[in-house]
Fold this protein.
Amino acid sequence: MKIYRYLDRGSIRESSTPPSDAVLLTPCVPSKIVCVGRNYAEHAKELGNEAPSEPIIFLKPPSALLAPFGTIVRPAISQRVDHEAELAIVIGKRARDVRAAQWRDYVLGFTCANDVTARDIQKKDVQFTRGKGFDTFAPLGPCIETELDPAALQVAARVNGDTRQNGNTRDMIFPCGFLVEFITSVMTLEPGDVILTGTPSGVGPLQAGDTVEVEIEGIGVLRNPVA
Ligand code: ZN
């Protein structure tokens, strides 16, 4: 089932079939956006990094969230803002010390995410917080798909209709169950929290006036203009 969150005459509603003129909201409101770096070997390589021996995790602030069709704003201090198409796991119930084999019991479903990154700033800083944390750098949506096996899904990014990323979740170094076990051994995840599972190769720059789309098989298309 697909769950959309949207505004309907000033009220927030959820439904699998929003009205055509509905203003979509992010499909959940996370207290934490947990991200996984370099989870696809080809992407680690394209940025000159080794494939990691255990997951690299970092946080994006919830203030970075952006709804479907919302505008990604390139900050003036960055010369290089990249798209990163990613499968996002949406947590369904409080999760702490979850075993990998039980991971699905704690997950509501999956959505599309764009881990927008100021690449020049990310490279300059030791921490990823600034380069990944600007307002509008976490587009999420358009819906949560609750009935989906994430083992082998196409993950694509298009800029102005041209395909830039076209990977498959089967190439993740650390699959979803491993990530849920690893992350919940560190921090408690709450309902609505999301895990961005890393991006396949093909990341590249966004310019003002572009439109970027993240499409994941079985979920849908997350579309955002860039200013
Ligand atoms: Zn990423």
Remarks:
- The helical segments are 41-46, 119-124, 129-133, 176-184.
- The chain has a mean pLDDT of 97.
- The chain has one domain: 2-225.
- The longest helix spans residues 176-184.
